[in-house]
Each structure stands twice: as structure tokens, then as C-alpha cells.
Design brief:
The protein is of the alpha/beta class. The protein has helices spanning 7-21, 99-111, 125-130, 145-148, 213-222, 232-240, 274-284, 289-302, and strands at residues 63-68, 71-72, 76-79, 87-88, 95-97, 114-119, 136-137, 151-153, 158-159, 162-167, 185-187, 205-206, 227-231, 245-248, 264-265, 268-270. Strands 6-1-7-16-8 form a 5-stranded mixed sheet. Strands 12-11-13-10-14 form a 5-stranded mixed sheet. A 4-stranded antiparallel sheet has the order 2-3-5-4. Strand 4 and strand 5 form a beta hairpin. The radius of gyration is 19 Å and the shape is globular.
């Protein structure tokens, strides 16, 4: 199922992109409804079990410790001040801003909680959650069967389809199907839901995974790889700061075979934290697609054009 960013949001992004870094071709977009009424979480208890937070513990002066890698624009990025609603990163002199930060703030404002954002490397973020270093993960995390073995997820708070990013002057710039990438050198982010998708490309030359979006974009720009798989949101964000690149969309039925859950971000909590999950879902469920796009649009407009 395709989850395109709406035409309204994409037009705003394109306008900003042409102002900030020259023209770009981000592809057309069609309005889509929220995957909202679809629940991403597995069955959970409505009361806490084995160490999960109780209703009483979530009342009063509670601090929600949110894990983010703080390097995944437009979901989250690190900056040196509190502009644009940024929140201080625990135990540092830096701040984090972005779509995920706004979602975390909404949850805490609803219940009068204190918000503490903890910077955690992506590779260890689920371990940090299950070792009680953080209370939840809000980091653009796709809902996969593998992750559901370790954590529970909230209902989706953002959805988009999977695309490719290529050099704008490459032979793949006008691709419309996976078959058009036959023989291409492709990789994506280590330990992401995109790595297993590489094998869906016929005769693909799979290169070793890379650590994050900036490294992937450099690899495409330099010709080290022919393309990388990303979510649509990450791809648009990356092309805004790299005008030599282009987002490739696929014709209906000719792109990646991906379950809608894997194209959607959920908030991860420990298996024992049913009460916390219910409270998070109560906020997530107030988001409709228009509100999601309003928040994402604001994040895209102020994201850094490059990341250290």
C-alpha cells in the first residue's frame, strides 16, 4: 500500500527546497489517510506486570525518558540551541529538534509529565529500553515482526512509502520499477527495515550496510553506490540538502513488497508497560493525517541542510 506525503506538504517542501538549495524533483504525491485505526502493538495488559509502570507511578511528577539517536532528520537532529522548540539532551550541552521531539512533547503535555530526551546509538536503542535506561523509543522506528519480539509498539504516528535515492544525473534517475535497478549497487542503513528489501531488486549487487543517512547520501553522491533505499520522508529530507540527488518513486505494483506496518513509525515500550502504552496511544490517536503533516512540514522547513 502506498503512503505518499500529501500534495500540500510536498508542495511546501519543494518550495523550501528550491529556495534553500536549488530545484529538485521530488515526484508527485497524493493525499493519504492515516493508518490510524490500525494498531501496531501486540496484545498488552491494561495494568502493569513485572516492573511496568503503574497508574499511580505515572501520575504527579513523572519524568518520561525518551530514547532517540538525535541524528535522523526530519524526525530528530542535534543542534546547539533551543530554537524551533528544541529540547535539551540529557547530560549534554546540546539540544534535539524535529518531528519526534514534537510528538514526545505532546505526550508529556497531555499528562503534565517532565520530558527527558536521552541520546542513544541506534544499534543499542532497544537494549537501552529493555535495560530500563529509557522508558520509550520515539525515533522514526518502523514496526517489524523482529522488533515485536522484544518490544510493544503504539499505534502508528507517521507513515510513508519506501523509495530509492539516486544521483539525479544517473541512468537510474528515471526508473519506475525494481526491474529498472537490475545490476545496480545498492545498500541502506545497518539494522534497518530497508536492508532486507535489497534482495527484492533483480540481480542486485548488495553493498555492505552503512551507519546512517548522511553516510548513505555521500555514498550515492560519490558514486560508491548507485542507490539507497529509504522511507519517503527521509529521502525528501536528504534531497533537500543534496540537490545532486533525486527521489525515485515506483509505479503501482512495481516497487517494494512491504507490509504497511513496516512503512509506519510506532513508539516502542517495554513488553511489561501496558499502562504506559495505553497513555501513549491515547495521545497518538488524537493525530489525524492533517495534524501529522502540519508537524512534519514544520520539521522539514527548519531541519539542518547538512548533519555533522
Amino acid at each position: 500500500m502506498k503512503r505518499r506525503i500529501s500534495a500540500l506538504l510536498l508542495a511546501a517542501v519543494m518550495a523550501f527546497g528550491m529556495c534553500a538549495c536549488g530545484s529538485k524533483d521530488s515526484g508527485s504525491a497524493a493525499a493519504s489517510d492515516k493508518a490510524s485505526e490500525t494498531t501496531a502493538s501486540t496484545a498488552t495488559e491494561t495494568t502493569s506486570t513485572d516492573g511496568g509502570y503503574t497508574e499511580a507511578e505515572l501520575s504527579g511528577d513523572f519524568t518520561l525518558r525518551v530514547g532517540m539517536d538525535c541524528a535522523y532528520a526530519p524526525y530528530c537532529w542535534t543542534q546547539d540551541d533551543d530554537s524551533n522548540g528544541a529540547v535539551k539532551i540529557a547530560d549534554t550541552d546540546q539540544y534535539v529538534c524535529g518531528y519526534d521531539v514534537e510528538i514526545a512533547k505532546m505526550i508529556c503535555e497531555k499528562y503534565g509529565w517532565n520530558l527527558e530526551i536521552v541520546k542513544v546509538d541506534w544499534d543499542g536503542i532497544i537494549l537501552a529500553l529493555n535495560s530500563n535506561k529509557i522508558d520509550c523509543i520515539i525515533d522514526g522506528m518502523g514496526v517489524t515482526e523482529e522488533r515485536l519480539q522484544s518490544v510493544n509498539f503504539s499505534n502508528y504516528y507517521w507513515s510513508s512509502e519506501q523509495v530509492m535515492v539516486v544521483r539525479a544525473d544517473s541512468k537510474y534517475a528515471d526508473a519506475h520499477s525494481l526491474e529498472d535497478f537490475a545490476g545496480a549497487k545498492v545498500t541502506s542503513q545497518l539494522n534497518s527495515m530497508w536492508i532486507p528489501l535489497i534482495s527484492q531488486i533483480p540481480d542486485v549487487v548488495e553493498e555492505p550496510g552503512l551507519s546512517g543517512t548522511p553516510e548513505l547520501l555521500v555514498a550515492v553522491s560519490s558514486g560508491k553506490i548507485d542507490g539507497t533505499i529509504m522511507g519517503e520522508t527521509e529521502a525528501i529530507s536528504g534531497v533537500m540538502s543534496n540537490p545532486d540527488l533525486k527521489v525515485v518513486y515506483f509505479d503501482e505494483g512495481k516497487g517494494f513488497d512491504v507490509d504497511i506496518s513496516e512503512c509506519s513509525a510506532g513508539i516502542a515500550v517495554r513488553k511489561t508497560d501496558g499502562v504506559l502504552l495505553d497513555k501513549i496511544n491515547a495521545v497518538v490517536d488524537t493525530l489525524d493525517r492533517d495534524k501529522e503533516e502540519e508537524i512534519m512540514n514544520a520539521a522539514l522547513k527548519v531541519q539542518p541542510l547538512s548533519e555533522e
